[in-house]
């Protein structure tokens, strides 16, 4: 009985901690989630978005540490929060276009679905169950009453949950260095000796194992099928795998408008498995002509992409030149790295740097010059 009762606040606390940390690591997903879920204007405030992840962490601690009469207060606060999340997800499922919730930062980049609602239903029921229990007990009281067998049950459940979490695919991969032999210079030709930054770039490239460009077929905006290998042979390509409705993808697609004009000889392509009309409805018209459609759904496996948004640089020499990297922040850094190496190889127009910086300064937002 003690184990079952303590499991209720423990489950809620773990979820809140994971959610809070994920939001702190990718704060832009909070703003995107508020926008995509159409949070009422009265609640869509910058200060509230900034406090949300910290509030989740504080609430997680309160669920387990609040004694006596404070236990119901924490329990009711958690129940209201999870019920609010449930309402937002339920409403989002009725939207004309799929959206992402950003519930767990960049790890929840996929659009909300019936599974998301089912998960939130369970969490809301757990929260309501703890509200009922909190009037007769508390987290500290249950912890103090734990016996050896109860602790073993909780430990076993925690280890099982940890194993399941570790086995789940990650939506964001760690940044991979751009190979200076293919990701800079002519992106496919050897880099000239003595180029600036050669030692550090070469050291990074030693850890990056280049793979042959897969011969996968993609559909272009005109409906024609084209081989990725054939496309890359005409010049280096930066592929951004996106999913319309994904919060992080929305920000990535918005910045791609600026990136595409600042990459010199590298051509930027949005790539998606979504219908063409869905992508074009949510992106700037300047990106439509170069968009690619993964009609066979092979990008994840053949290019090593683990989720959306993800970026990979395809060299002109028949091999991948960098990536894949996942998540908006990692993609920003990746684009900046490509630009740096192009600039070192003198393949980047200096005017592009000025334009990019000017755009970033005028926007007042944390947008990279790259």
TrEMBL record:
GO cellular component term, pick one: membrane
Any one Pfam family match given in the protein's UniProt record, by short name: MauE
Low complexity composition-biased segments: 185-200, 349-361
Places the protein is found: Membrane
InterPro entries referenced in this protein's UniProt entry, alphabetically: Methylamine_util_MauE (IPR009908), Thioredoxin-like_sf (IPR036249)
Gene Ontology biological process terms in this record: methylamine metabolic process
Domain Methylamine utilisation protein MauE positions: 4-131
Organism of this sequence: Rothia kristinae
Membrane spanning residue stretches: 57-88, 122-145
Topological category with respect to the lipid bilayer: Multi-pass membrane protein
Listed name of the protein: Methylamine utilisation protein MauE domain-containing protein
Keyword Transferase (UniProt): no
Alphabetic keyword roster: Membrane, Transmembrane, Transmembrane helix
Residue span of region Disordered: 185-205, 342-370
């Amino acid at each position: 009985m003690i184990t079952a009762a303590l499991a209720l606040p423990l489950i809620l606390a773990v979820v809140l901690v994971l959610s809070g940390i994920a939001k702190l690591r990718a704060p832009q997903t909070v703003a995107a989630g508020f926008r995509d879920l159409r949070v009422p204007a009265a609640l869509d405030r910058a200060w509230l978005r900034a406090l949300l992840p910290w509030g989740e962490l504080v609430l997680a601690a309160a669920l387990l540490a609040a004694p006596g009469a404070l236990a119901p207060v924490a329990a009711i606060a958690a129940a209201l929060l999870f019920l609010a999340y449930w309402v937002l997800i339920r409403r989002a499922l009725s939207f004309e276009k799929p959206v992402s919730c950003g519930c767990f930062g960049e790890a929840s980049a996929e659009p909300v679905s019936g599974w998301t609602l089912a998960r939130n239903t369970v969490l809301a029921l757990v929260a309501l169950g703890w509200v009922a229990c909190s009037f007769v007990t508390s987290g500290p009281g249950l912890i103090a009453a734990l016996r050896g067998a109860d602790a073993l049950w909780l430990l076993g459940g925690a280890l099982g949950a940890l194993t399941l979490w570790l086995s789940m695919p990650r939506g964001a991969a760690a940044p991979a260095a751009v190979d200076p032999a293919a990701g800079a210079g002519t992106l496919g030709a050897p880099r000239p000796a003595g180029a600036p930054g050669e030692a550090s770039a070469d050291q990074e490239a030693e850890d990056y194992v280049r793979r042959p460009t897969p011969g996968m077929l993609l559909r272009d905006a005109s409906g024609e099928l084209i081989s990725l290998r054939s496309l890359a042979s005409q010049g280096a390509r930066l592929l951004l795998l996106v999913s319309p409705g994904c919060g992080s993808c929305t920000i990535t697609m918005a910045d791609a408008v600026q990136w595409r004009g600042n990459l010199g000889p590298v051509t930027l392509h949005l790539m998606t498995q979504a219908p063409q009309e869905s992508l074009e409805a949510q992106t700037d018209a300047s990106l439509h002509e170069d968009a690619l459609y993964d009609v066979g759904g092979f990008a994840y496996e053949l290019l090593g992409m683990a989720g959306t948004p993800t970026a990979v640089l395809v060299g002109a020499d028949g091999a991948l030149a960098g990536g894949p990297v996942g998540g908006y922040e990692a993609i920003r850094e990746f684009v900046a790295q490509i630009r740096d190496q192009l600039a070192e190889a003198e393949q980047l127009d200096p005017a592009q740097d000025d334009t990019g910086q000017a755009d970033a300064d005028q926007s007042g937002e944390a947008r990279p010059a790259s």
